[in-house]
Design a protein that fits this description.
The chain is of the alpha+beta class. Helix content is 17%, strand content 32%. The longest helix is centred in the C-terminal third of the chain and has 19 residues.
Length: 733
């Protein structure tokens, strides 16, 4: 895998979903009985449940803020649970009878049965990879033996199948890491989308699960010793060992020797440091150097090296400045990729153990493209770039001389890679809007590329669609790109159904991806657009910083400009325009709802942050203060209060139809955001009690932020999304 700068779990917010919309004229839809769900009965609720108003006043730096729904923050209280149950009844009463729902469900079952696959990771004589087929709820970890030095590979066999761990498919395989020679694989599983992993170890040859079990290993980073004696790993504290709430922070590095009690594992790194540090580990090819990469927010990463043979403590390699660094140690050299004084990133090399910054040698300078990361495969330096939100792969020698540009199948995204310093092959995954995930093998001996495997998608004809990349101007004149997908020959008639999605944060790029569910929308003549907003990584660190902290409003302005571009270019109009986003993209949806309620007909707001004055007090959200700021700071309070969606709901205003979506076991973004926002809007908005332009709340059970969600739940979730959007914008099934 490329030693990238934005690939860790901490920097992701997962699952940016697609759906779509088409809208009848507002005045007609308000009056027409055909806009109501069919099959109503006397038991059907006529309005959403009324949440009790219990004002709580709070002082922020001289400003008094009253929150009428603070009580809904407690998800365990009987009152909150009763209200959520009533909301569920109301939501189901409107969504379940919608015309065309059965056909939508049937087609989504076909689309989401299109599988998935990852590039193999090599270890010894083994190739490890995950694959999901048909309606399997979870990807399965496979191993393929042999195929090295001209030998024919053995058959693929199942190593870990999480689908066998729980009947409803809600136990997920969170992560996995083979030992250096592939004798063992460490892997983590968690229930109900909680991501609270438990580490297990399986012997590759026999499939025997070892007795070593370690809990509190969420998103664990693993570095195996080359002799299989043990491994370095990250773990969280027990609740009893830290103050209340701190058990979700304080991620430290430990060493575990196989066969010993994990409670006695030696602490390696983290004691006495900021509890919000996020360390990851990797080991050099000779087993001498442990590299510890410490993420500190979203603009700072530091590197530490530990000489395992000398037994010296971890020593900081980097400068302590606010830059991002990633690294890999190979043959006694440390290869570093960084945005230090280079917002589009560059690469250096230095001797491992030499901690003088002046001794670093630049080997790959900054270019117009964004250098995402580098890795040593087969004694060469492979680099992944991104330009205009599409991927590039290049090969360099270890001195930085470019050897080749790899030809990719189309404009799209390299989504993962697998290789080793001692192998003459490496693998990468590629996908695009109209290109199903495919795995390619690159042979370093003859510099050839071949298809290793691909996902079959027989029910889709990608040739029927075209992708455009268009640029528009945001409020301050900044040019912003957007991908637009639709049927070939689509007419710009000014009223096509259109769906826009965006994210705009955390240094994450939205690049072309094969979105299975979006094809339902495209097949019905819809336009699907992905806007590359500021706050992301598409154009380097400057682009990221232009959409964070006090500049967060730029993200919202970009999204508004994207919508206005689609209207001005006659793709659609505001009566046929829907938007959707999740997590940080859910915050984006909240800002669109409150800042431009006139611009959109329907909004799907998933696992959102909405109360930006209190967000940092819930779950793992203190990790995000570096991106958003905190209302605990007087200056940061001002800009957060200026856009916090929950605090900008205006009474008697007509808003778009809204579907708020959250999950009861989300351990990233607390469900309180969606609960409070739905309660306030249902009480205060002009259409708060409307059954034709409703404001709905959907709370998923046994599902978290999105990772590990079983396919069966995804099908039901997308059925609700598309039924809602088709209803609101007038798409006929």
């Amino acid at each position: 895998m490329f030693a990238g700068l934005r690939l860790s779990w901490m920097l992701s917010s997962l699952f940016l979903f697609a759906a779509a919309a088409f809208t009848a004229d507002d005045s007609q839809s308000q009056a027409s009985s055909s806009a109501l769900p069919a099959k109503t009965s006397s038991a059907t609720p006529t309005a959403p449940p009324q949440a009790a108003v219990k004002p709580v006043a709070e002082m922020f730096h001289g400003t008094t803020i009253v929150d009428n729904y603070r009580w809904l923050e407690d998800g365990q209280s009987p009152a909150t649970q009763k209200w959520v149950e009533e909301e569920t009844v109301y939501t189901r009463a409107l969504l379940d009878p919608l015309p065309g729902r059965d056909a939508i469900h049937k087609r989504l079952t076909e689309l989401l049965s299109i599988g998935d696959v990852t590039p193999p990771q090599m270890a010894g004589r083994h190739y490890f990879y995950t694959k999901r087929e048909g309606i399997e709820n979870q990807p399965v970890l496979y191993v393929r033996d042999g195929g090295i030095s001209g030998k024919e590979p053995g058959p693929d066999r199942v190593l870990v199948d999480p689908n066998q761990l729980n009947a409803d498919g809600t136990v997920a395989l969170d992560w996995w890491q083979p030992s250096d020679n592939g004798k063992y694989v460490a892997y983590g599983t968690s229930p109900g989308g909680s991501e609270m992993s438990t580490l297990h170890i399986i012997e590759t040859k026999t499939g025997t699960v070892l007795p070593d079990t370690i809990d509190r290993t969420r998103a664990a980073s693993i570095a195996w010793e080359h002799d299989n004696r043990g491994f370095y790993y990250t773990r969280y504290p027990k609740k009893s060992d830290v103050p209340e709430g701190q058990e979700v922070y304080n991620r430290h590095v430990f060493y575990h020797e196989l066969g010993t009690d994990p409670d006695g594992d030696d602490p390696i790194f983290g004691e006495g440091r900021d509890p919000e540090d996020w360390p990851n580990v990797s080991l050099s090819n000779d087993g001498r150097w442990l590299l510890i990469t410490v993420e500190q927010g979203y603009t700072k990463i530091e590197l530490f090296l530990m000489n395992l043979k000398a037994g010296t403590p971890p020593t900081r390699v980097t400068t302590g400045k606010n830059f991002l660094y990633s690294g890999e140690v190979y043959e006694g050299k440390l290869y570093i990729t960084t945005n230090e004084d280079a917002p589009r990133y560059r690469a250096f090399v230095t001797d491992a153990g030499d901690y003088e910054r002046d001794h670093w040698k630049e080997i790959i300078p900054q270019t117009d493209a964004i250098l995402l990361g580098t890795s040593v495969f087969g004694g060469k330096l492979f680099a992944q770039y991104e330009q205009n939100a599409t991927s590039q792969l290049k090969i360099f020698d270890l001195g930085g001389k470019k050897l080749a540009d790899l030809s990719l199948p189309a404009l799209g995204t390299v989504f993962d890679s697998g290789g080793r310093w001692d192998r003459d092959e490496f693998f990468y995954g590629f996908q695009s809007f109209t290109f199903a995930p495919s795995i390619y093998r690159y042979d370093l001996k003859d510099n050839s590329t071949s298809l290793w495997t691909k996902v079959a998608a027989p029910s889709i004809d990608p040739s029927a669609y075209e992708v455009r990349q268009e640029w528009f101007q945001s409020k301050d004149g900044t040019r912003v790109p957007m991908f637009i997908v639709g049927k070939k020959g689509l007419q710009k008639n000014g009223h096509n159904p259109a769906l826009v999605t965006g994210y705009g944060g955390f240094n994450i790029s939205l690049t072309p991806a094969f979105n299975r569910a979006a094809y339902l929308w495209l097949e019905h003549g819809g336009i699907y657009a992905v806007a590359n907003l500021r706050g992301g990584a598409e154009f380097g660190e400057d682009w990221h910083r232009a959409g964070m902290l006090d500049k967060k409003q730029n993200v919202f302005d970009d999204m508004i400009a994207a919508a206005e571009h689609l209207i001005s270019e006659k793709y659609t109009d505001r009566n046929h325009l829907a938007i959707q986003g999740g997590s940080n993209g859910g915050l984006l949806m909240g800002a669109m709802i409150t800042q431009r309620p006139d611009l959109f007909r329907a909004v799907v707001c998933r696992v959102p942050l909405l109360d930006m004055l209190n967000y940092q007090n819930f779950q793992i959200a203190r990790l995000w203060i570096a991106e958003y700021g905190s209302a605990e700071n007087v200056n940061q309070f001002k800009w957060l209060y200026a856009y916090s969606p929950y605090h900008h709901v205006k009474a008697s205003t007509e808003y778009p139809a809204i579907l708020f979506m959250t999950a009861d076991t989300d351990t990233r973004v607390d469900p309180m955001h969606a609960r409070k926002m739905a309660a306030r809007m249902q009480a205060e908005a002009k259409n708060g009690a409307s059954r034709t332009r409703p404001i709905l709340l959907r709370v998923e059970t046994k599902a978290g932020h999105g990772a590990g969600k079983p396919v069966t739940k995804q099908i039901e979730e997308y059925t609700d999304i598309y039924s809602f959007l088709f209803w609101q914008v007038g798409v006929k099934e």
